[in-house]
Each structure stands twice: as structure tokens, then as C-alpha cells.
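Changelog excerpt

This revision adds worked examples to the README so contributors can see how folded entries look when concatenated. The first example is reproduced verbatim below.
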Amino acid sequence: MIRPTPIKSVSKTALTLALLLSPAALAQTAAPVSLSAAVQAALQNGADVRTAQANLNKAQAANAAQQADPSALAAAKLNAKNTLTLAQVQLRGARLSTLQTTVNSYTTLLRAQENVELQTLQVQVDQKAVQVAQVKLQVQNATALDVQNAGNTLTGSQQNLADARAQVNLASGKLSTATGLTAGVRAGALGNIPTLKTALGSLQTGLNTNLTGVVSANGEVASAQLSVKLADNDFTPARTLQDARTALANAQRSLDSAQKNAATTLSSAYQSVDNAAELLKVALSKEAAAQKTYSQDAARLKSGTISAVDLQNTQLTLKKAQYSRLQAQTDVLQALGSLSVAAGQNLTGIGGTF
């Protein structure tokens, strides 16, 4: 990664500020953690996951007892089975939700860290602009207002840098809370960004068994169907059968609504991943162009056709392109996290199969 070009004749105060807020100084506070390690820690330490696991263990024991009890009636057996099935899906849902939260927290922290680098370089560029304006003023090639404007711009950049550092600390705290990792945690570099290869139609077929809301509605339908079956005889009052059929019709409508809502949410999340992937391609192209321009200007500086100030401005343009590319990468990861929750299966390539 391109590092800011050192600037000569920088004031002691400004130099101290740059050193204190530099990524190197921040990195000393804690060793960076990988996204995979952060997700694993969250899955192990997350309260929602642990609660869902405890509920599953309880449901497994209750179901085993009901199925083995010769005196248990059909409704009790079905209820225990439905509760177990729902608990299994709820555990998967808790893991996926925890995965999404961790991915979002991690990528937010990584963006904040990279923004500190960007704002550090911006401060250096603006410091140089003040120096240039002061020199021009001395030779009467600029006005005092030009120097003042350059100084105002520098002040704003320094404030942005201070805010960027504060955002790192806030994002680090959120990631620590989500994962149970120690305070001051820092994000490492992103690995390869996964490509979505599963078709939308394939994801839609799994909604009936992967989503808590749909599975719960399916269980209600099964229970209502059993009630109708048990009431459909000569010795049960007709009113009881009518009520059971009404309850079944209501349960079927609720199931239909849950399925449609799930399908709509899934389609929207899938489209978001597609959009994010296309924007990443654009960001990568722009970064490549900026890198080429920087390399050309570095050669031009050696040949004496541009100044060091010109190269520093080109370097800033490259850094902005790199930051935009990082934003696009994290947008893809966040979109995949949302899609995973909507599909009820892990599509991020992180944390394994749930």
C-alpha cells in the first residue's frame, strides 16, 4: 500500500499530531485480528447463540421424552417435534445474525482505520499547501487571503483526522462487544472477497426449512391439520370441527404470507449483492487507473517534469481510490451477510456451514 511521502519543514506540533494519529501508532495498541477469527469468537461468545443452543438442548430432551412416552398423545408428540425443529432453525438464525453483526462491525472498523490513513495524508497535503501559499506570499505571488484559506483548509483536515481516530475507537468498542475480544481490538486486512455463485431460485427453495418465521408458520399449519383430523369424526361436536378448520385456514394464510415476505426479502437482498459486486468492479478499475497515474507521475518527478507537490496530490488521489475500493469490498461483504440472514444459510464464505 502506498505510504504518504514525507514532507520537509513541517512544524513540530503538526509532526507530533501526525505521529500520534498515524496508523502505526494506532496499531501498537492491539494486534490486528482477522475477520474469520472475529466471527469465530462471536459465534463462541455471543449471548444469542448460547441461548439458542441451550433452548435446542432443552427441546431435544423434551422431544425424546415425548416420543418415548407410550402415554403421550399425538398432539403432544407433534408439538414436541415442532418445538425441536423450530429450535434447530432458531439456532441457525442466531448464528447467522451474529455473523452479520460481526461482519458489519468488523468492516466498519476496517473502514475507520483506513480513513485515518487517508486523513493523515490529506493533512500532509494541506500542510504543504500552506507552506506553498506562504512562500508565494513572500514573493508577492499570492495574497494573505490565500494563506488564510489554505490555513482554514488545514484546520478542517486536522479536525477530520481527529474525528477519524475517534471513529476507530468507537468501531473497535462495538467489535469487542460483538465478539467478546479484548478492548482496543483492530481489524486486519481483508482476504479474498467471495463471489456469489448460488442462483436465486436455489436459495428460494430452502426458505421453508431455513427461516424461523416460515418454519414456525409451517408448524402451526401441521398442528392445525392434526386438530382437524382429530375432530373429523362422529363423536366430536360439529362446532369443534368447524373451529379447527377455521384455525387451519388462518394458519395456511399466515404461512402463505410468511413465505411471500421471505421471498421478497430474499430477492431484495440478492439484488443488493449483485449491485455491490458491480460497484466493486468499478472501484477496482478506478484504483487501477489511479495506480497507473501515480506510477507515471513518480517517473515524471524523477525526470524533473513535475514537482514533489504534484506527486503528493497524485498520491492523495490514489489513496482516495484505494479507500473507495475498500468501501466497495466491505459493501459486498455486508450485502452477503444480509443475504445469508434472508436465505437462512451462510453465503459469506466465513465461519463455515451453520
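The second example, added in the same revision:
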Amino acid sequence: MRPPLESLRILEACVSAGSFARAAERLCLTPAAVSLRIRTMEAELGKRLFHRAGRRVVPTTDAVVLAGRVRQALDGIAAALDEFQAAKPPLRVTAPPTFASRWLAPRLSRYPAAAISPIEVDVSADIRDPAAFDVAIRTGRGGWDGLEEYRLTPVEATPMLAPSLLGAQRLETPDALADFELLPHPDWDAWFKSAQGRAPRSLRFASVDYPTHELDANAAVAGAGVALLSPSLFRPLLDKGLLIAPFSQVLTGPAWHFALMRLDDTRLAPRRLCAWLRQRAQEHA
């Protein structure tokens, strides 16, 4: 039978204090309670722990060795608690919804330093105040004041639609998109100009303007229209056949996705995360 941890703690106190009375005072117990616990331990272990010489008690050699090991264990527990209580605060990462779900989340789960610096992700299309984040993922052309920039991936866009919406039709030229409802997107004109130099004269746009590309993709899968989406971010939908990209022309840039941190932030944790995200982006460039 193994004695409980509290009994081992009392044993260590008796050995280090040199008497049951001083150990009882240190542990805020009565001497009688300490003596009873020691006798119980001797019965549980089947070994004598102290020799009694009159009113004095002398620990056996085995008791001294055991008490030393117990002290090491207690010191280890105390150190673990100190380390736990002094754990580093989480890194605050803010990112737009679609990029967060399609690109960031699958990679952050493999970030090796996450166990050392926990990460809290704030998903928002709004631009956060620099004081509210440690690392921000934002889209633009760069040049943010007071922020250090790590270029990740270019913004991409190409038309995608559900196979059920296309049916038996064939989209041989971009002009054929005039036969479909297009989900609103600010880069439709730029895509048509890159694909054929001009946009068709008459285009029909869906009445619902979704606030995120993720919702555009969901609407496109449901057959609500043709969405202008990133083939990199939405590759899983293409691979599963839920969407098709009928044209090879992909509008790339000039905007990019960036990882940003404050220039005045001298900590290594945000810089390491930004550099790690840039490396992951370069692997698939």
C-alpha cells in the first residue's frame, strides 16, 4: 500500500525539522496527529521510519532517503506551479474571416511554438487598433504606418460556379458570363479586362451582396450565381467538384495578404509568428 502524498509531506517535515513537535508546528498540526500519521505510514510501508529513544525520535536511514526524494518531488511540483502561473500571455492575432478559415486556421494548428505562446484569434473584417493585436492579417498594397509588414500571398480571383448552374452550357469565352447572375464583387471589371480587355456590355448581378468571400462561395455552391473567388483559398471546393473554375485567367494582385506587427514591439513571439507564416506562404508560392 502506498501512503497518500499528505503523509509523505509529513514524513519529510519530521525528518527536516528533527522532531515531531517542530514538524507539527510547521504544518499547523498537533504533535499527536503527526505521531499517528507516522505510525500509520510505518504500518502501510511495513518498515520502521523512526527509532524512539525516550522522548526523542531519530529517522532511519531509509526514512532519510525517502524524505529526500519526497522533498525533490515537492520542489518539482512547486516549480511546475510557478511556471504555470508565470505562463506567457496569449498572442492576439486578428484576421479577416475568409482568410482566417481557409488559410490561417489550418496552418496555425501546426505552429510549433503554440504550446509556449498560446494564440487567440480574433476574426473580423474590421481594422483593429494596433494596440488591440500582436499580429494582424490584413489585405492591401502595404505601407501601413507604424507596422512591420510580412508579405504572405497575393489576392487572387477567378469566376467559379456550381456544376448544376452551368448545366449543359459551355463557357467558351468570358462574354458567356453575361447569361448568368454574378455575385457582387468589386473586381469583376478588373477580371474581365485582364481576361479579354473589356467587360461585356450587359451584366446581371445578384440582388444579395454578401460581406465575405466565404459566404459568396457558399452561395455559389448553392447555385445562386457566379462568384469571383481565390482558386488558392477555395481549392478544396474545386477538388471536391462543388465548384468549377471555367477560365484559366486568374486576376492576381496588386493587393496582397500581409502579416503585420507593431514596429515598436520588441518581443520575439510576434516576430517569430510573422516569419513562420511567411515561410508557410513561400512553401506554396
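Reviewer comment on example two: The mean pLDDT is 90. The first strand starts at residue 50 and ends at 53.
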